[in-house]
Amino acid sequence: MPLVSIITPSWNVEGLIEETIRSVQSQTFADWELLIADDCSTDNTPGIIADIGERDPRVKLIRQAKNGGPALARQASIDAAQGRYLAFLDSDDLWLPEKLERQLAFAKEKRAALSYTAFRRINETNTVTGRLIAVPASLSYGQLLKNTAIATLTAMVDREISGPIAMKNEGYDDFCLWLSILERGHTAYGLNEDLARYRVRGSSVSSRPVRSAKWVWQIYRNVEQLSLIRSAWCFAHWGARAWLKRREF
Prior knowledge:
This protein is α/β, with parallel strands linked by helices. The protein has two domains: 4-203, Spore Coat Polysaccharide Biosynthesis Protein SpsA, Chain A (Alpha-Beta Complex); 208-248. The chain has helices at 17-25, 45-55, 70-80, 99-110, 141-144, 159-162, 173-182, 209-223, 228-246; strands at 4-10, 32-38, 59-63, 85-88, 94-95, 114-122, 128-133, 138-139, 156-158, 188-199. Strands 1, 2, 3, 4, 5, 6, 7, 8, 9 and 10 form a ten-stranded mixed beta sheet that branches. β6 (114-122) and β7 (128-133) form a beta hairpin. The longest helix has 19 residues, at 228-246. The termini are far apart.
């Protein structure tokens, strides 16, 4: 069985998915499987994935029966995953070649249920925009409630330490997952190395800040069931950090 299962949802990314897959195939660590759950794309995204999978059996296409959004697609990949470690990569983002090797060594050293790394943003033409997005050395549950530090494409979960995991069908399902792991008493550890590229697209699910803020508030109140006062306190900190993170300098 592979050591690392890579969890990737896809939908209508025929112009980007091959490059994302190539960034995984270029990893210096090769003991992985890439599980791409296609959410009923209407373009040639599944065809591209299937064609690459014929040449590299580590790349596996999962076809969703109906369009249900990224949370359900990620869950389909998790359900099929064989690896001890789950690494998350969206279908338009990229990893640098040493990402898995460096993060695995770090996660093992820290015995981390959840780890994450620094990254840079790119635009649709692969031009790096803005600064390195650095990350804190560690985050507890309470700290993560007020933070935006764990970007999905940098996250890795050790299932032997974290215990069972499942996605919630919410906006920011990834944030819900990280909170559910840390709420059990685990600490997340950050590797402050530039190992990934987050692509900013106008059509991406997380590209609208007002909607993102609404999702976070709903998570505080409906999922985590925080009090109104604690929700407001966490939201103020989260909003300030989100604004700083979006700045390009």
